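Replying to the earlier thread about multi-chain prediction with a worked example.

Input:
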Amino acid sequence: MSEKVLELKQVTIKFGGVTALDSVDFHVNRGEICALIGPNGAGKTTVFNVITGVYPATSGEILFKEKSILGLKKHQVTKTGLARTFQNVRLFGEMTALDNVIVATDVHKRTGLVRALFGTPLNRREERSGSERAHELLKLVGIDHRSDQLAKNLPYGDQRRLEIARALGTEPEVLLLDEPAAGFNPAEKVELADLIKKIRDTGYTILLIEHDMSLIMGISDRVVVLDFGQKIADDLPTIVQNDPRVIEAYLGVPADAS
Amino acid sequence: MANLKSRFNLRDFGANLWEGWNRQTRVTFTLVLIGLVALLPFAASWGPTSFLNTPITSFENVLVYPVGMFVLMALGLNIVVGKSGLLDLGYVAFFAIGAYTQAIMSTTLGWNTWEVLPFGIAFAMVAGVMLGLPALRLRGDYLAIITLGFGEIIRIVALNLKITKGPDGIPGIPNPPAILGLDFSLENPSHYFWLVLGMILLVIWMIRRFTIRRPGRAWEAIRQDEDVASLMGVNTLIYKLWSFVIGGAVGGAAGVLYASKTMVISPDMFKFEVSILILGCVVFGGIGNIWGVVVGASILAYLPERIRFISDARQLVFGAVLILMMNLRPDGLLPRKKREKLTKRGSL
Ligand SMILES: Nc1ncnc2c1ncn2[C@@H]1O[C@H](COP(=O)(O)OP(=O)(O)OP(=O)(O)O)[C@@H](O)[C@H]1O
Ligand SMILES: [Mg+2]
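Result:
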């Protein structure tokens, strides 16, 4: 039986008059790649924002490993095991690629400021293991050769990969990817799809926002479709693909009219 | 212009040189440098460097205050403004707290400077927490305004309390007792300089430790994108608070020392202008770069004393230097080193 690792229950969020999410209900099973799709402005990024504590939900409940994470601060959410990337790359541009990842690995460290000052053995060990782990992750996403470059100087594709490595640095159980293939050419998309599968096979659960249908059909186990803040479908990729409501949402006309 | 800049960059030149040295060369260089700086009090009386001598105020005293003190405070403020990117316009408040702690405790309880020092630092840190907890939830301009207000409040409180003796201030603060072979009588300003130098070195050591480890990364992340930093797990409030508190501690320590050197303090020594001048030192030298801040603060503190003989035109020249500088090097004398090499040590 699959375990629900992340679950949204009747989540509603309003921005003034706009209802960005309207009683959204869905869950992510452990170990799967779940795709979250929908037309522009459907509320996909808002789902990430509400999960990671950027905005409070107006009503509803969010459960992570059966515990409510609603109302936690952003860094607390990250610490419980959820990490994300951003639709528009938001790296620490003036830091090296390696440091970008090390910052993330710091979440679970036990030594802070005081022990850093005195360089206690535990602090030294943690510093070393953080940097080793960061190199591993850069290798995993295929950009370890760039570790000493400033993030802002990396090619665009590598910046996207670095965002993934940085999120993994927080050792999340669920990885939230917001359009990681945006701006990629078809060949790059295939590579990225392979990377995402590889990451899943390493033991992570993935919630993926993506517009490219072929990419989604290729790698996802389940697809959740949002439209105007409401969930309109939640099923296997092949079924969702032929759902008339989904086709209507994407094309703006009823499926049988075409 | 941009081309010219990329061809020669003093900071990178220095960093590369340092990078290329082995441990032994580095230690030797550092010791020689510290030794030379320690000899500074004699510079005014030695032929080739006698041009450094300041008219009116004695050179040795100028080295202690303003030069040494400004470097110390600029380093402290740099932890706040340069490292975590928080604009603090009321830094003088911490200096004042340290100075009044020394003044009050020494005159009423009879404690000496070394006994008061931990309290001066602790009170400044507590003030940092009390100001920081509410203020650090705000950002940018709002934070700047609150800190500005805080600086003024401390001065006005000192102006009105009985224990601080209002506008007259507190006289008769004793000099520090001798320690480690240093004798702090007023005829020995160079001994004060060596003490300040020691404190500066201690602060630099502390900042360097922080910078290459977790706190430095957290501050850097916060400075660049606070929201993303917290989404990557950085407890932004705590780290911002720490930068405030550590910066405050340095200011407090400087205040204790200052009070026991001047022996008299009054509220008008802790005006808003001091905060701005210290901030000026940080910006002038290069926000975020320790060496930039040290050089910047030294120049800005020393220059007005050196040209004191032109009296009124002095401020004019000083202003002109600032304007010239901001045009030629908007990022400061030695701008912040990007974190390209710093990780090398962590990656052993
Ligand atoms: N902070 C905010 N304030 C006001 N409205 C917002 C805010 N964030 C999102 N919205 C609105 O909520 C709706 C959903 O936005 P969201 O960014 O989640 O869409 P999306 O599905 O990610 O779209 P895209 O595919 O373009 O990224 C939009 O109408 C948007 O204008
Ligand atoms: Mg979006």
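Chain A has two domains: 1-81+172-258, 90-171.

Feel free to reuse this layout for your own posts.
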